[in-house]
Each structure stands twice: as C-alpha cells, then as structure tokens.
Amino acid sequence: MKINNIAPPKEAAERIQANATEQIARTKTNTVKQSAASGISMRVSTVRELALKFSLLLAVIVALFSVGIILLLRAHTRQRQNRELVSAAQSVGESLAKGLVREAEDALPYYITFCVYESGTKEVLATNDPFLPVLPPTPKKALRYTAKNYFSDGDLNILYYARPSDSQDFVIETALNMDSDTAESILADLPYILVPVSIPLLIISYIASLFIAKRTMKSVRVMTDAAKKISVSRLGERLPVSGSGGDFDILAQTLNDLLSRLQSDFERERQFTADVSHELKTPIAVMLGHANLLRRWGKNDPAQLEKSLSSLIREAHSMEAIVGNLLEISRFENGRITLHAKLIDIPTLFERLAENTKAYAPEASFKKHIGVQKVYTDEELLYEACTIVISNSIKFAGKKASIKLSSARSESDGFCDIAISDDGPGIAAGALSHIFERFYREDEAHERSGGGAGLGLSIVKSIMSALGGTVHAESEAGKGCTIVLAVPEAKRET
Hints:
Blueprint: H1 9-97, H2 101-107, E1 112-118, E2 124-127, E3 143-151, E4 154-164, E5 170-177, H3 182-216, H4 218-228, H5 247-296, H6 302-333, E6 341-345, H7 346-358, E7 365-370, E8 374-378, H8 379-397, E9 402-409, E10 415-422, H9 444-449, H10 456-466, E11 470-475, E12 481-488
Parallel strand pairs: 7-9
Antiparallel strand pairs: 1-2, 1-5, 3-4, 4-5, 6-8, 9-10, 10-12, 11-12
Helix pairs in contact: 1-2, 1-3, 1-4, 1-5, 5-6, 6-10, 8-10
C-alpha cells in the first residue's frame, strides 16, 4: 500500500478549522451586507412614501372639508332664502288685507319679486315682475323652478314660495332670481376658487412632509449607518439608543438584542468549530503517524503492522463516536425526533438501569429512593439520558462506584426530579456551569484516557430539552456529584 502527499497532522486540523470558520464568516458577512443595502433602500423609499401618503391624506381632508363647507353654506343659504321668501309672502298678504298693494311692493327687498293670482282662474291680480310665471302653491318651503329658453336670451332659474291667502281666494307667490343672487354666485364659484388654492397648499404640504419625514427618519439613518459598520470581525458593535423611549429606541433595542443573540450564536459556532477541530486533531495525528510509519517500514514488521492497524481502527472508532454524538445532538436540537410520551413506572426504570449497568460494572452498587412513582415522557430517551449520566459516574467514580437513584416532586409545579448521585471525586465549583457544554472536560488528560469526547452531558442536555425538561448538576469537589433530570409528572388519564 502506497500513501502519498499526507499533510502534517497540525496542518490538516487547522485546515478543517479554517475552512469551517471561513464558511461561517462568509455567511454572516453576506447577511450583514444585505441588511445594510436593504436599510438604505428602505430609508429613501420610506421617506418619500411617508411624505406622499401624508400629502394624499391632506388632499383627501381638504377635499372633504371643501365639500363639507360648500354643502353647509348651500344649506345655510337655502334656509335664509326660504325664510326671506316666506317672510315676503306674509308681508304681501298683510298689505293686501289692508288694501295697500303699493305698500306691499315697496316693503319687499329689490331682489324679491311677487305676484298675486286668483286660485281658480289663475288671473294675476298684482305683480312687480310681469315675467314671473304663475306657479302652484308649495307645501311648506321654497322650491326650485327652472324653465329652458324662457327668455329670448336665456333660461328662467328661480326659487319660489307660494301659499294661499287666509281666505283661500287667491295665491301669494314670491320668487328669487337664482342667476342674480350673490350667495348663489359665490357658491357656484367656490369650487373654482378652492381648487387653485388647494394645489399650492398640497405642494407646500408635500415639501413640508418630506422635510419632517427626513427629520423623523434620521434615527433610522443613524441605525442604518451603524448597521453597515457591523461585520464578522465587529459583531460587538451595537445600534445607538437615544434613551427617549420612543418607537425607534424600542426598535434599536430589539435589533441590539437580536445582534447579541447572533453574536452569541456565531461565537458558539466558532467555538464549536474549534472544538471539533481540536477533538479530531488527536485521532488524525495518530492515524497519520501510523500511516507514515507503515509507509516507511512498518508494513514489513508483523507486530508493528498489527499494532498500527489496531490504533487506526481505535482512532477511527473514536472519530465515528464523535461524529455520531454530534449528529445526535443536532437531531435533538433541530427537533428531528418523534416523541412517544407515555406513563413510565420509575421503579421499573431504576431496576432496568441498575441491571444493565451491572453488565459492564458488576461491582457497582445501587440505592433507590422512590418519592414519585410515575412520570409522563418518552421512556427510551429518558433511559438514554440516565444511562449516559450513570456511565459518567462509573467512569469517574470507578467500577466500585456507589450510585443512588431517587425520584421526588420538583420545586417546579408539574415536574419530577430524577436524581443520579455517585461517590466519585465530584466537580469543582468553577466547572459546574460548563459541564453541559460540548467537548468540555474538567480534567483533559483523565477524560482523554477514558476515551470520552466531552459530549455525553451535552447529549443529556439536548435530550432533556427535547422532552420539555431540564438538567442541572450539584456537586462539591471530593464529595461526589448529583445530576438532576426534571421531567413532567404523570398526567391523569381519563
């Protein structure tokens, strides 16, 4: 067997780490650049959109206001005209009752005309306008009357009021020429006045809105400029918060919280890449060392050949275990599992754990304390988590470890604490918060010699998260360790 171009172990491991880190960095950088570009586009379009929307809103308000004013003025004018015509008819009636026809004509305003005609024959008895037509009585208010081509030079357009006299012998009719009425002329011309006035007003409002929107969006511009400065190498940068407590401050704080989570995720990914590279460095180095040895002269020495092949197989199994554990953690964290929750009898679970542990550690002893009889969860996943914890206890406390299994109601409502305790060397206080991290080892040399990769308790944490529970450790150096798994208590079946 001929092996060529084998890279040094350190170089190979560093290449793995560099490639992975570069890929992460490229993804993060592209995300930041896309966010910055979107921010600039959003800033420009939003300012114009806000100004345009405000101007359109103002235009609608002005239009509605103008229509309202016109309708209000028209209604007020019509009421005034109606009162004048009714009053004029009453005045004419009173004058006629006294036989003072001339006085009736003089008492009317110049713009009001009248006629008095007999109810039956429609004969005009008195009038101040010979062109005023004889019209039927109106109910209670004045009516509009229009006659096309009534005059040689135009139409007749009047507002009239007609009522029978008290004796019902004749009808008193009063009228107002709408074409010569000043109020009607103003109302007719008002739309043509409002439109030219509104156009400059809308232009001024758009310019003012644009200015106000730019001032308002200044905070967004500042945030966008700050966001453009954020890169893979500067994930610690944050968006400015003015402290005013406004909506933009809330937005900036929310984005800062998101950036903090992204930074935490990125650091975790970078640390994970470094940890994987570190863990693979030793087996790769061993495998490359034995491969080089076999290439040089080991293949001709049966003893060395057997030793090298055994080492290669052992290290390959080690790498397989690391990759398998990582895939299992990923499966749990990404939710790619199906839970089969059911009622689990805790005494039966403890017996199963003790029996299977004694198969590889027959000298280990078990004590059991049952405070809660049943829990409701996935039995196999809970068994796997407990098995990993017990395996760790045997590894550190030795084959003659004394292990205590107990169940008790948790301080959290609806949960049961399953505690696994050993009499091993315990865990230092400074390490308790790290033992569930991937690849963490309190004692690097001891853990490596035990064949572990520092992933067992990380798997336990992922399992408990998938089960909707939690896990924590309690320990003092030299006084053993207790791992507590909090799982949901049994539900009452109906």
